[in-house]
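Look over this record as teaching material.
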Amino acid sequence: MTLPAPALSLFANFFSVFETRTMPDRPFRTGDVTLRYRAEGEGPAIVFLHAWTLDLDQWEPQALELASTMRVVRHDRRGHGGSTGTPDPGRDADDLVALLDHLQLARPVVAGTSQGARVALGFALRHPERLSALVVDGAPDCLGAGEPEASGDALRASLVALARDAGMDAFRRAWRENPLMKLRGENPEARLLLDRMLARYPGADLLDDAPKGGAPIDAKALARLTMPVLVMNGEFDTPA
């Protein structure tokens, strides 16, 4: 499947012009969690996976543009936004399979950013027959190079300590200004959107003594991908 031109420009302009709309949130029960999701539009399907601490509203600008020609699906991954449970990237792929089955979606494009990109990669490796193409935006280091992964572990440890010692409000203030999260533009709608998503993030994984993670993804695993893959990185992206 070929992504329409607007999709590429909107990925490149992450958190672009945001227009408030009223779209119905729908609950979907799978296993021990209830996921909040939205599905709109008709045509070839694309499923969006959001970054850590964010939720499905991250993709509102893209949904606004693409729903006129595509079936756009997005959900809060477990433990984020309006979904229940504790964040667990290792189980996100199973949740996505269940949601695709529920919506009867066959071989959509799957797109993710940051931690959502790692989830998308894991899903593509485990279920290559379930998607037609893969888009990863700002994916965390997946090649086991060592230093970037260690840097990400140190950042998480500092954020966990801040949340536990000073509370979630302090965590949100610090995380909002971190280079991995900080907005570079002055769009007030984008800032309001980010603040609303961070306010909804429960932070259950920050208080979990046994943080979860997806299966390791290395160069040998990536070589097994056979579907079209678009890899994107922004000008200000840093390893995590």
In short: Residues 36 and 82 are 6 Å apart (CA to CA).
